[in-house]
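User: quick one - fold this with pyrrole-2-carboxylate bound?
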Amino acid sequence: MLGLLTHKFRQLTHNSAVLPETPEKINAEYDIVIIGGGGHGLACAHYLAKDFFAENIAVFEKGYLGGGNTARNTAIIRANYITPEGVAFYRESMKLWRSLASELGINLMYSVRGHLTLAHSDGALRTMRWRAEVNKQCGVDSEVIDRETLADICPELSLSSHTRHPIHGALWHPDGATARHDSVAWGYARAAAKRGVEIHQQTEVTSITPLDDGRFQITTPRGTCIAKKVVQAVAGYSCRVAEMVGLWLPLRIVPLQALVSVPVKPYLDPIIVSGSLHLYIWQTQRGEFVIGGATDPYPIASTRSTHEFKTHVIDNILELFPQLHTLKAMRQWAGITDVTPDFAPLMGKTSLPNYYIDSGWGTWGFKATPISGKTMAETVATDKTHPLISSFGLDRFTDFALLGERGAAAVGQ
Ligand code: FAD
Ligand code: PYC
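Assistant: Sure. C-alpha cells for the protein plus pyrrole-2-carboxylate:
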C-alpha cells in the first residue's frame, strides 16, 4: 500500500514539475516560429497544435519560460472592462479560465474572490454606473454598490469619512479571480510540448529578415532557421522585435512595480482596487498581501524597484486598511509593460504577410492569456482575423478607431 502511494506521489510530482527540455539544435525550417515563451506565446503554440493540428512549431524564448511579465504579474483575472469589444474579449477569457486547469492537467490555483473597484467621488461613481451597464449588456456580472453593501462584502475596509479620500461606493464584480501565474506558463508549455511543439529556452531572436518568397530568416545565438509564419509575443520587447522587420508599433514602454508582504493569517477575501489612490491589494492563499499601483510615469525599459513606489502604495493602503500598519514588506519587483494609447491590446495580422503580433498587453494581459492564445492561433492558422480581436488591430491607429479602455484597463495612470 505504502509502495503504491509513493509511486502515485512520484507520478504526481513528476508530472507537475517536469518542463519540456530545450532540443539540442534548432531545425533548418519551421512552419511557425513563435518569439516569446511567456503565457501568450505558449498559449498560442498550444491552441495551434490542439485546435488546428499545426505541426513543426518552435517557440524561441530568450530567458526561461514565463520569466518575463508572466512571472512578474499580480495574477488578477476579471472581465469588467468598459468598451463592448474589451468586455466581450475578457468575458470569453474568463470562460476558458474556468476549465483551464483540467484542460492543461495542472493545478492553477484558480480562486474566485470577487473584485471591488472603489469610487472616491461622485464622478467616479458615474463612470462605474456606465461600466456596470456595458458589463451587463455583454453578459458580465458587475454592479455599483453603496457603502452599506461594501461594508458587508469587505468589513475590513475603512469606510471612515475622516480620511483624505472617503469612499462613496464601488463597482462589484463577483467573478473577479486570481491564478498561479507560473502554473499557467508551465501548463501551456507542457501541453504544447506533448503535441510536438519545440520549446527553445535561452534562445534570443536577434534578427528577422523577410525573404523574397514570403518566408523569414531568423537568427539566434544557437543557430539560424527559416520560418513560413512568425508570431511575436514579447510584451515589453514588442517595439524592439517589430523593428527587426521594419514595423513601428504605437507603444509606450513603462515599468510596472509590485510588492508582496510576509504571510499572515487569512484577513482579506476580495481583490481591492482604487484608481484614484493608484493601488490594488489582495491576499494570496498563503497569506501574503500582493500590492501594486500605477505604471511609473517615465518610459524606461528597466526592472528596478524604487523607494517612491513603496512609500506611495503603503501610505495609501494604510488609509484603506489602517490595521495593516505592522505588516512587513517581503519582496519588491517590476516588469516592463507595453502600453497602447487607448489601453486596448494590439493583436493580429500586420502589413507584412505571415507576420503576426500579440502585444499591447501593458498592465492587463495575464487575464487574457487563454483567449489571446486561442484567437491568435485561429488567426495564424487560417490567416483570417478572429472576430473577437478584429477591433484590436494596428489599423485602428490609422482608421481613427481607437477604443478608450483607459478607465477600466489600468490602475489610475
Ligand atoms: P511575457 O510574459 O513578458 O513574455 C514575453 C517573453 O518574450 C519573455 O519571456 C521574454 O523573455 C521573451 N522575449 C523578449 N524578447 C525576445 C527575443 N528577442 N527573443 C526571444 N524571446 C524574447 N495583467 C493582468 O491581467 N492582471 C494583473 O494583475 C497584472 N499584474 C501585473 C503586475 C505587474 C507588476 C506587471 C509587470 C504586469 C502585470 N500584468 C497583469 C500584465 C501581464 O503581466 C502581462 O500583460 C502578460 O504577462 C503578458 O504576457 P506575455 O506572454 O505577452 O509576455
Ligand atoms: O488588469 O486587473 C488588472 C491589473 C491589476 C493590477 C495590474 N493589472
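One thing worth noting: Residues 74, 76, 78, 280, 292, 363-364, 411 surround pyrrole-2-carboxylate (ligand 2) (CB under 6 Å).
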